[in-house]
Amino acid sequence: MKLLHIADLHIGKRVNEFSMLEDQKYILKEILKIADEHNPLGIIMAGDIYDKSVPPGEAVEVLDDFLTELAARKIQVFIVSGNHDSPERLNFGSRIMQHTGVYIAGTFDGRLKHIVLNDEFGPLNIYLLPFIKPAVVSPHFQDQDIQSYEDAVKAIIDHEKIDPQERNILVAHQFITGGSKEPERCDSETISLGGLDNIDAAVFDVFDYVALGHLHGPQSIGWETVRYAGSPLKYSFSEARHHKSLTMLQLGDKGALDIRTVPLHPFRDMREIKGPLHELIGTHGSSPENDQDYIRAILTDEGELYDAIGQLRQVYPNIMRIDFDNSRSIEEINSKSAAYGDVAQKSPLELFEEFYLKQNNVEMTAEELGMMEEVFEDAGGAGK
C-alpha cells in the first residue's frame, strides 16, 4: 500500500506582498502528476491547508480543484487542521465528503477520527488528530490534570486504546521534539514562545508512522518514522537552501515500512544573490530561465546607490527584498543609536550628518550640507 504525505500548503499565502497562488496551483498539479505516476491509495495532508483562518475565495477554489482531482482518481484523502486553519471552516461538508473518500478532522470532539484501510496484509488504521491546545482537550478529560500540550496528546492517545499489533498511522499538526533534540525551524513558522507546545516523540510509540505538519523543513524527529513532510514551497528566505519534497510511504506487513522522498520543482524558486549591484545586474542576470525567481539581494556596495531596487527589478522582476552586507550594516548592528555622544547637545543638522554617514557610509558634501541647513531653517529649526 502506498501513501503520499504532504503538509503546510498555506493556500492563499502572500510572501513580502507577493501572492503565491499561481505557484501553489503549479505545485499541486505536480503533486497530481506524482500521484498519477505512483498510484497511491491515499494522500495525507497534515494541516495548515490554508494560510489564514478566513481564506480568500481564490484559495478555497484552489483546494476545491485539488480535492476534486484526487477524488476523480479514487485517491483517498486524510486531512487535519493546522494552527493557521479555522477548524470549523475546514470541517464544513466533511460528513458528506467522507462518502467520496475525503476524510477531514478540522475540530476535536474528544475522539480521534479513525479510518480503516485494508490490503493483503490486513487492516491499516489511520487516526486524524487536528491541531489542539490543552484548553480544547481538557473538557473532554475532566478526570485528568491536563496542563501541557504533551499531557493533552497523551490523554487522547491513551483513551483510544490502540492495538499495537496492528499497523497504525497518526496524522497530526504539532511541535514535536526528540528528547533534548529540537527540529530545524524556519522564519515562516509560528512557534509558541518558550517552547510550551513541545511534545516528545516518545508519546507516539504505538504508531508505525506519524505524519506531521507544522515545520516547513522536511525532516524526521526522534526517529525516522516521526516525520515532518515540510511545505511544498519555500515561504521565507530562511528556506532558500531547502530541497522541497513530498514523502512517499510503502507499507507492507507490520514493521515493514519504506519511507522515501520525491522532489518537488516549483514554478519559481526562492533564492538569495549576493555581491555589488553592478555584478548582480550583470553576471548574475545572464540566466534568463532563473530571472523569474523570487529574489533576496544582499548588496555589498560601500558607496551610495541610486534606485537599487529599480535597477535590480529590471533583471529580476520578482525581487522581494534588498539587504546590505557592508561596513555600514555591520556598524549598525553593533550600534543601537543613530547618534554618538550627548544627543541633547547637538543641533538637528549635526544629528542628520551622523544619520547620513551611518546610512551611506560617506560624509555629506558641502553642497548637501548647505541644502540641509536651508531645509532646517525653513522648517523653523536651528540648522547649526
From TrEMBL:
<keyword id="KW-0540">Nuclease</keyword>
<feature type="domain" description="Calcineurin-like phosphoesterase">
    <location>
        <begin position="1"/>
        <end position="218"/>
    </location>
</feature>
<comment type="subunit">
    <text>Heterodimer of SbcC and SbcD.</text>
</comment>
<dbReference type="InterPro" id="IPR029052">
    <property type="entry name" value="Metallo-depent_PP-like"/>
</dbReference>
<dbReference type="InterPro" id="IPR004843">
    <property type="entry name" value="Calcineurin-like_PHP"/>
</dbReference>
<dbReference type="InterPro" id="IPR050535">
    <property type="entry name" value="DNA_Repair-Maintenance_Comp"/>
</dbReference>
<keyword id="KW-0255">Endonuclease</keyword>
<dbReference type="InterPro" id="IPR041796">
    <property type="entry name" value="Mre11_N"/>
</dbReference>
<dbReference type="Pfam" id="PF12320">
    <property type="entry name" value="SbcD_C"/>
</dbReference>
<feature type="domain" description="Nuclease SbcCD subunit D C-terminal">
    <location>
        <begin position="266"/>
        <end position="359"/>
    </location>
</feature>
<dbReference type="GO" id="GO:0004527">
    <property type="term" value="F:exonuclease activity"/>
</dbReference>
<keyword id="KW-0235">DNA replication</keyword>
<keyword id="KW-0378">Hydrolase</keyword>
<keyword id="KW-0269">Exonuclease</keyword>
<keyword id="KW-0233">DNA recombination</keyword>
<dbReference type="Pfam" id="PF00149">
    <property type="entry name" value="Metallophos"/>
</dbReference>
<dbReference type="InterPro" id="IPR004593">
    <property type="entry name" value="SbcD"/>
</dbReference>
<comment type="similarity">
    <text>Belongs to the SbcD family.</text>
</comment>
<comment type="function">
    <text>SbcCD cleaves DNA hairpin structures. These structures can inhibit DNA replication and are intermediates in certain DNA recombination reactions. The complex acts as a 3'-&gt;5' double strand exonuclease that can open hairpins. It also has a 5' single-strand endonuclease activity.</text>
</comment>
<dbReference type="InterPro" id="IPR026843">
    <property type="entry name" value="SbcD_C"/>
</dbReference>
<protein>
    <recommendedName>
        <fullName>Nuclease SbcCD subunit D</fullName>
    </recommendedName>
</protein>
